Protein 1
Amino acid sequence: MQNGVCRLFLQGGRPMQQLFKIGEVARLYGINIRTLRYYDEIGLLVPVYVDADTHYRYYSSEQFEQLNTIRYLRTQGVPLSEIAVHLRRREPARILDMLRSQQALVEEQCRQLEQTRARLAARVAQIEDALRPELLDRVRIEPRPLRLAAVLRRALRAGDDLELPLRHLERSAHLSPSFFLGKVGLTLSREQFLAGSWQTYDSLFCLVEPGEDPDQDTLQTLPAGPWAMLRFSGTHQDAPNHYPLLRAELERLGRPPVGDAVEFTLVDYGLTEDPGQFVTEIQVPIAPA
């Protein structure tokens, strides 16, 4: 025995094969001994010889190709159970099917990761925008694309706790739990907006992002086109104090609302413990110029 290498001999002194102790194989391949022991336990890579006295495991050089296959397929994310099936009956068609299946899985994972990346980018941009003090307390008119929302129709008042209705919306629309900040809004009807009745809301909604698949019966669209917006420090409870400024500005511009107003909380306890940093925005679709 030298350097963890053992030779077995047939009668007559002719070498049968060269064997390597488990530690030597682990060093050669840069893998953990525990991994090789686990492969032995599940029957994936069984030593060709185990010393009856020392219980040392020995592997043959002929098994290196088998270990190469295991390591390659693991880097491709193929489960050990499928690798075991392949090793029991190695055929080109079988491994081709396995790799095609894994390719489809990776492509789906990439699609999901891209959706996650896009959501993160949108959320970062949204929070950065919400922290711009120069946008507070002034009316802006900006175009908005068509937006899809899952809606819970329920009368709510400014200052109501929205957590319970939000859980109802989550369940009824089959929304997955997510970071709702900037996605959840309240709806104030056009008629209430014009009448100056700014204390009661008609519904609670959550914007739907790409990749989400809520219950179709809960869906409603926020129209594309120009929207008038007024951002202020505070929460929905403070919104009635800011509607007069927005309505007066639209009257001055001669651009009346053409749909319901919505309110979004942009900064709340999800981002800060300081209520003085809370930010909410009123948005209302208006007639083209």
Note: DSSP finds eight helices and twelve strands in the chain.
Protein 2
Amino acid sequence: MELTASIHLSEAQFNLLMMHSALNVLNVLMFEIVMLEESYGASSQSAQLTDDLHQAARSLSDQAASTMLVRNIDDFIGKGERLLAEWKATLTDHLEEFETSERNITEIFDILRIRARELATRADNPDAWEDFDLVTLHHNYVKVLRAIEQNSKGRYRIVYNLAEHDQGAYLVHFVVTSHNNKTIYMPAVLQDIIRDLLANARKYTDPGGSIEAGLYDSGSEIRFVITDTGHGIPAGEIKQVIAFGQRGSNAQTPTRGGGFGLTKAYWYTRHFGGRFWIDSEPEKGTRIELRIPRMQQ
């Protein structure tokens, strides 16, 4: 089904769309802190960490506050790392789980730095197009999937070989190609959108399922297609799930996202003069396709 409706966003909603990639990382960090508190009990340091993360997440709906956070991300992360070290110093034994989470949090902080740099680079020109090396771009998305797998703490695996696929793993097949076999020229924000759609496909598919995705620069348009064998979307709700904060009524469990990954994908596709399709059936899966006319270099 091709979707063509206009979306009207408030200033705060639009700013959250712009900062969505940072919000996702902050949500993952908050989850890690909650898990540590369940194992080791809350502390003054964990309370401060949680408060700082919540304040940072709330700031993303305000343009001035979010810009300040992005510019000062090293200071924000430095404080978080100090609080984490102080919390660890108050513990005396059974530190293995804490140290595992500490390594995860350090890696997530590194991802937050990268997202902040991307956002800062786009601040003056949110509609900027960039050349992306095919190999590097594909590698970056594999890193995203590995981070998602690691954050599951063993609840599932993500594999890329059919021979490794079982009921505890997601089988992912993702191809990136271009008419020149070297680079893809696309809106920089499309990086975020593809990350979101990959994460959503994983989130709404049970372990044992499959996800296929492809990104292609034809020289005249940019195409991205992703399919999954997940929960699907009820037919009468497909037009509604692109609205800000909306999910399908059959979403089985609460999620840590803001509920606007599809909104962002749809809004930017239309903003760049593109077309957007969703085809879905409950318990069979979903197919999302977007096509954006290619800006000539």
Note: The radius of gyration is 20 Å.
Protein 3
Amino acid sequence: KEELGSPLSRAAKALHEAAAAAHQAASHAAEAWQVFGAPIAAPADVERAAGGADASAGSIAIRAATSADVPAMVAVINEAFMADAFFKVETWYDRTSVPEAEERLQAAGTVFLLAMDSRGQIVGAVCVEWDDSTGHGEFGQLAVANCMQRKGVGQALVKAAEGWCLQQSKGQPYLMQMPLISERHDLFPYYESQGYTRGATVPFAYPAMLNGKYDIKFVMYHKRVGGPAADGRSLGPSGAPPVKPRSPFDDTEAAEALAREDHLLHEEQLRQRLHNRRELEVSYLQYTQVASAVGIASG
């Protein structure tokens, strides 16, 4: 009885754990449906989004992070961003912290998307932001656990980020942008293969992080998401990959047109700010006139 009971007990325990894991997976799939409007966590969908990832990436589910996920998520992000340690001072080796991530998680227009393996472990993350005032999306802190590198997880996260922003834009075409470190040349082809175009180089925003050994800047990459490609196919996250330009001239022309569009957008924002400032000045002038008149009358 004892010899038979022990294996049966272990089998019962294994079945119980499997049932619990299945319940958790179903819960995560429901969360993914709520966030993205479709069960993108389905293995076949993730594999297609990752461009033919191998079987180990086929079981990845993507969902939005909650506060309970933050410590494990931060550990994955900081592990991945040790690749940036060569240009940082040691106190800034960590890319983020639990308090910082929790604060960003609560910010309006911000979501952390997580890649979960079949055991319910976080194996990837990305922070996505949407700016209603500009109609632009941006993502950063894209991280994949070392054990899941080169398996399509990062690409699936990028497509999920694009999909989330497409929901925020209510299906309208929008600009997705992201900053890359100027010395991380190894990353440029990775994003270019997903349709991102190199843009302006701007100063690094956090000079206190730098060890002074490299001239670190941000290289801005951008991509138009949701618009039609040259042959009419969608450039959205669930559509076909973007059609590459037929010539360098076409690529340059598209980049210049995008730059002009952004410039006009910034000009319009500036005009609106000046208009608002003039309204405030007029209101203040009227206020001082009324206050002066009241002061004279009461005197």
Note: Strands lie at 61-64, 110-116, 122-131, 136-144, 174-181, 197-203, 217-225.
